[in-house]
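We read letters as residues; the integers encode the fold. Take this protein.
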Amino acid sequence: MINREDVYFRLPAMAQNMLMSVAGVGVNRKRYGALFHRRLAEYEDRDMWDPERISIFRKTRRAAVLEYASRTPYYKSVFERMGATWRDLVDDSAFIEIPLTHKSDVRDRPNDFLARPRAKGDSIVRTSGTTGTSLAICKDVNAIAEMWAVWWRYRHRHGITRGTWCAFFSGKRVIGASQGVPYWRTNYPGREVRFSGHHISPATVKCYVDKLNRSRLPWIHGFPSVIANLARCMLERGVGLDYQPLVLTLGGENLTPWQLKSIQGAFGVTPVQHYGLAEQVANISECVEGRLHVDEDFAEVELINQGGGLSQIVGTPYGNGATVLLRYATGDLAVAAKDHCTCGRAGRVVASIDGREADLIVLPDGRFTAPGAAFSPALGLAEAQVIQHENGSLTVRYVPSVGWSASSLEAMDHSLRKYVGQALEVNYVRVDEVQRTPTGKVRFAISEMRGNDRTNQVSLSLEERGRVVSSQL
């Protein structure tokens, strides 16, 4: 069978541009039809609803999801073991008695989560996990429309419209590994210039900046790690934009403090963040006041206290009539804010998204810690990554940036020890680039401790606590 991706990467730039635009026509048709526009109008109408209206709306949608779940083999069995019908589980106190669903449950038995046989018009969307851990989620046309509607509601808040041209920096390959200038391809129907993240370096950065300055693309979007790498190279080479972008948005990864400092320094704007998942179990988006809001009308989101101020994000998607997920443990961590936002939106406010539970380090006494904040912008870091080996010791891979000095390594160790203590052995390795996943994302921490046992231990702890500390609107 011919691999279309291999064919694409062997073609010259002009042919790649043409194929990208042809694909863009299909993407627009699939994402932005009449149903999308209806859902977008509904989401924007709900954007400033008061808490009471949102609460009633959520309970109605929760009941619909539970009814769908009762049709699936997996949840039919769960409800039977609980001695309950779906109607018994609609209220808040009953709903959080449903056991958490984990990624391994869905990966091992994907068809057991289908509420009906696959239908024409359904899409199979794969999550961005590494090989063997990603999921294939079946979505109906409404799920696709709802996902893009809630994302465009967020973009509209910041002045982005469907007609706004975008400079897109993701981790996916855009050009062949051996291809050179230009390091971008254009999707004309999608109004986006896709830049290759794999080719960004101090030697090539001027080509990227020259293209941005010529095109004056008003919207810059991409993975934090890719745009931060571009920013680091811009600062090192002393090149910059000669125009002010309308907005710079980030998604797909957690934004670290050192990435934020580099991006602000190079682009002169504070990036806007958004959190979403292919599973559609939660959506958190930034308002014009710079606060992160849970999109309460998109999914049933629980913030389950893990201790130390961290909560795991657990979610139940509302809009997918094909695959049903109840109380899905994302493995992502957040810090819940204690105040409300002055923008007037009713959604809960999240102070920060703090990566994944897999980014936690296991201490010798069995406690977990999230040491990401140890790597502050003041250290002069471009990137950092912690590997915890099977014996518990740590290796820190780091990439220096502007501001790195002879004392930075000692300062980094001192900062890290505040989180992990003195007992753990820590080794530091200077690298040109930290390890990335096949989709180009950067994981802050990588654990080699007994495979999935460590993650299961964290998940079990969260599940045990989830029934009593679930955070509701």
The chain has three domains: 4-29+165-274, 32-154+277-357+461-469, 360-442. Residues 235 and 265 are 8 Å apart (CA to CA). The domain at 360-442 is CATH 3.30.300.30 (GMP Synthetase; Chain A, domain 3). Residues 451-473 have pLDDT under 50 and may be disordered.
